[in-house]
């Protein structure tokens, strides 16, 4: 019997199996950002209780995003070798273990070693999930591309909102920063259980060895425009997760209110991420949409730092709506600029590898600027520039062209 092509599952999925897979895709997305927002939500409490040095704070806020770039390029190879569903299951197992490790004590060694080890594991797992979800959507949900892209990117935003909004109350209820971080392993472990039957049904199809050289997005100008759009999107997106709560607290807002503001902002990200892909799929090209949401996100970030404090809900709301739409349309470009699922997973690995690898510099630079200047004003100027660059490359990436295969 001939081996099915790598663009297709081993057998056409039934409607029930497709619905189940769609639910699993959404639930995976619901676990891909809690590691970022949960840590930043109680960063002052962790720093005070664990005595974290400055270098550790920088490493713990920056390394997860850097690892997204490091591990993303491995996802296409792993998916061809073992199958996307099997790799996704392994990634969720690794994510669960990493989330547990962040909350475990290590007698005699302090908090930093397990925090770092758990964060590294989470970063690697999230990198694989980030790359595989768009390719699964491209492969199995071509007939509902806008809807499924909107649903899973909305779930990713919801993940960040849950981490930002519930971690501080969990800390208040338990009195333990370890418990309030480790609790996020519970929903991740639940998804592991749900993915097991999906992985058991899957038979990995071997990809073509020649595809590595013949169909490489690394040689495509279109792929590079999409990738650079992703770079500046990621610089803003992960800086929101890591630094928006500390920015608000630096402006005099208490921890509970800051967590609530961040959660509402990220809930508005969900609104943008739900509707932006549907709009993007229906448009002839996405130039105006990409540029508009990039400027909205950059402007909201700048106003959250410099704008009048009495309007902070407005500024963070603008940031949330713009950032959610920006993230969603950037990820939707993977499906819109490729003909096949095999190219989609390659472009996803490239744009997220480079995008998150370079995009992690955003969180790092905010930390360094805070250290050098003692405030967030310099970061505000930086994100005015980043928003403008995201708009410029978004305009280029939005032109209606496909990567040549």
Automatic annotation (TrEMBL):
- Give a GO cellular-component term: plasma membrane
Where does the protein end up?
A: Cell membrane
One of the entry's Gene Ontology molecular-function terms is: transmembrane transporter activity
Q: Which residues cross the membrane?
A: 18-43, 55-75, 87-105, 111-133, 145-169, 181-200, 221-245, 257-281, 288-306, 312-336, 348-370, 376-395
Q: Where is the Major facilitator superfamily (MFS) profile domain?
A: 222-405
Q: Which UniProt keywords apply?
A: Membrane, Transmembrane, Transmembrane helix
Transmembrane among keywords? yes
Q: Note one Pfam family from the annotation.
A: MFS_1
The keyword Transmembrane is assigned to this record: yes
- Using the UniProt record, give the first listed, main subcellular location: membrane
Per the record, membrane topology reads:
Multi-pass membrane protein
- Xref: PANTHER family: 2-NITROIMIDAZOLE TRANSPORTER, PTHR23523
Q: What is this protein called?
A: MFS transporter
Species whose genome carries this gene: Kocuria dechangensis
**Lineage per the UniProt record:** Bacteria, Bacillati, Actinomycetota, Actinomycetes, Micrococcales
């Amino acid at each position: 019997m001939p081996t099915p092509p790598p663009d297709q599952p081993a057998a056409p999925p039934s409607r029930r199996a497709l619905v189940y897979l769609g639910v699993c895709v959404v639930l995976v997305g619901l676990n891909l950002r809690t590691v970022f927002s949960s840590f930043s939500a109680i960063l002052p409490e962790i720093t005070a209780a664990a005595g974290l040095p400055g270098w550790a704070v920088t490493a713990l806020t920056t390394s997860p995003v850097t690892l997204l770039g490091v591990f993303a390029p491995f996802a296409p190879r792993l998916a061809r070798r073992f199958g996307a569903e099997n790799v996704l299951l392994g990634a969720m197992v690794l994510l669960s273990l990493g989330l547990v490790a962040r909350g475990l004590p290590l007698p005699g060694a302090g908090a930093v070693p397990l925090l770092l080890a758990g964060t590294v594991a989470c970063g690697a797992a999230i990198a694989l999930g980030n790359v595989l979800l768009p390719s699964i959507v491209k492969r199995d949900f071509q007939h509902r591309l806008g809807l499924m892209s909107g649903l899973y990117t909305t779930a990713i935003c919801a993940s960040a909102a849950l981490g930002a909004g519930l971690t501080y109350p969990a800390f208040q209820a338990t009195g333990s920063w370890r418990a309030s971080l480790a609790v996020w392993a519970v929903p991740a472990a639940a998804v592991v259980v749900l993915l097991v039957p999906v992985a058991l049904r899957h038979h990995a199809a071997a990809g073509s060895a020649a595809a590595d050289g013949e169909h490489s997005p690394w040689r495509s100008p279109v792929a590079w425009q999409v990738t650079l759009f992703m770079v500046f999107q990621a610089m803003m997106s992960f800086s929101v997760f890591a630094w928006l709560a500390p920015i608000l607290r630096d402006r005099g807002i208490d921890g509970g209110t800051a967590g609530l503001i961040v959660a509402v902002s990220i809930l508005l990200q969900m609104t943008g991420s739900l509707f932006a892909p549907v709009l993007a799929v229906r448009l002839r090209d996405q130039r105006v949409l990409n540029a508009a949401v990039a400027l909205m996100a950059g402007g909201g970030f700048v106003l959250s730092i410099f704008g009048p404090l009495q309007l902070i809900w407005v500024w963070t709301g603008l940031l949330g709506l713009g950032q959610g739409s920006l993230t969603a349309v950037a990820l939707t470009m993977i499906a819109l600029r490729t003909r096949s699922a095999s190219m989609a997973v390659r472009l996803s690995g490239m744009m997220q590898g480079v995008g998150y690898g370079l995009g992690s510099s955003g969180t790092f630079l905010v930390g360094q600027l805070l250290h050098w200047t003692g405030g967030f004003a310099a970061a505000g100027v930086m994100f005015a520039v980043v928003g403008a660059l995201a708009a410029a490359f978004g305009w280029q990436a939005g032109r209606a062209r496909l990567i040549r295969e």
